[in-house]
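Why run this: before we spend reagent on co-expression, it is cheaper to look at a predicted model of the complex and decide which construct boundaries make sense. The entries below are exactly what would go into the expression plan.
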Amino acid sequence: AQSVTQLDSHVSVSEGTPVLLRCNYSSSYSPSLFWYVQHPNKGLQLLLKYTSAATLVKGINGFEAEFKKSETSFHLTKPSAHMSDAAEYFCVVSDPGTSYGKLTFGQGTILTVHP
Amino acid sequence: SQTIHQWPATLVQPVGSPLSLECTVEGTSNPNLYWYRQAAGRGLQLLFYSVGIGQISSEVPQNLSASRPQDRQFILSSKKLLLSDSGFYLCAWETGHRRNTGELFFGEGSRLTVL
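The model came back. Tokens follow.
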């Protein structure tokens, strides 16, 4: 069975400072991993994905994530936060052997950016 | 380009009333379609998926049903709403003929409040 743990329910940073959103996963297979962002009362948007190629993945809006198999982690980072980054972020794992749509979503991390 | 439309955006309904949420996708053919529910402070729960017209799979037993009358139309329904049906409903699609790519495209969501 697959699972995802987002280690922080809330993260607060100042504009211009680095962002770190932590995610650990558990999977019986070689998983695909994703980060999605959700702005208030909006749908989710894919930020980036890892699918067994390069372990450092770059996404949209300056975000990147590093897949570390030994630590079963897929933390999301950004060098400098912007006010528009304030949103909820979801780490997602997909096992290719499972049924359609059986993505496992983390509980989400709410990112607050202070001026 | 592909777009996904979901409506209504907001809905307040009394207990026992019917429900119909609609989702349409443009710019692609034979997509996999999904309905998810997002309860406050929780991750996403897969409700239904469809890989083709008239093909519906339910992931959890519940008071809801889904239909796919056309290739790019997905409808979520209920005959009698319960208080527990309140939540944020998200329609999503992914490229057809593939499974669990993890690359989902979400609609803007429909917030349902049952009173």
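Chain A touches chain B through 26 residues (CB under 8 Å). The CA atoms of residues 86 and 112 of chain A lie 5 Å apart. Bring this page to Monday's planning discussion.
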